[in-house]
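Appendix B. Chain record.
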Amino acid sequence: MSEDRTEQDGQDKDEQQSTPRPATAAARRERRTANAGRAGTESRSPDAKGRPTVAGRREERVSPVARGARFVREVVAELRKVIWPTRKEQLTYTIVVLVFVSFMVALVGVLDIAFAKGVFWLFG
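Structure tokens predicted for this chain:
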């Protein structure tokens, strides 16, 4: 069984090496057109490429009310997925934020006073 498997792996490697993957978009395009010609689709002209489709594009118009209702439904669905913090966690987060903001305000204030005194000392 293992010998059969190694022979198959060897054949797979030979096939991969004989047809390397194209590195550029132009080479991929040429390969696609060459493969399409071999598949029996010679009736298509090279310029008759299909246009790319836009995902989710609809032909009919949706009213603003329907769009608004859909938006609200999607917002509610997303808010249901949110893991809300407990009261204790919220209190802890609030205290951490207030301490950090107080520290940063004090740091900026001290640096402002230091730079002001430095400028007055330097320029008189």
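Further analysis of this model is presented in Appendix C.
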